Structure formats: structure tokens, C-alpha cells
Fold this sequence. Notes:
The protein has helices spanning about 10-20, 25-30, 55-60, 65-75, and strands spanning about 1-10, 30-40, 45-50, 75-85. The protein is α+β, with helices and mostly antiparallel strands. The mean pLDDT is about 95.
Amino acid sequence: MVLLVRNRVKDIDHWKRVFDEQEAAGMAAGLSVKQVWRSADKADEVFFILGVEDRARAEAYMATPEAAAVGEEAGALDGEYWFLEEFPARNA
């Protein structure tokens, strides 16, 4: 399972510094950074995929005031996320 996240941010460089500094906290919650992208069309939009060891643990972490404070510190203006499971592609 992975967690796909989209954030709109005030300053992408500041957001990335805070994001990198918080990697250990995410790892403690069973989350691991797989990929990070920025939008080619919108300078204030980032997307990232986190590996998820345990969905309940990840959701509990994301619901904490500490996690919300990190988003605020990073300058996240809004965002959304989706838990995704692999769905096998049809054989070609």
C-alpha cells in the first residue's frame, strides 16, 4: 500500500526542507518516502508517494496535532491524500 499526497504550498523550497527534516517522524509511523514531484505547470504544487507499512498506524499519525503542525510549518496551504493498493494491469 502507498499513500499519494498532493499539497499546494507557499514556498516549495521551504516546504521541501521541512519535508526532509520530518522523514524520521514519518518512518516512526511506518511511512517511507518513495517519490516526490513538483508540478510542471503550477510552481506551488507538490505530489509525493509514501510507502505504508500499516494503514491504521499511518492514519493515527496523520490525525495528530504534531502532523498538522508540520504541515503548517512547511507552509502547506491545502492538500489531499489517497491510500492506494496495487491493482494488477491487464495482460497486453
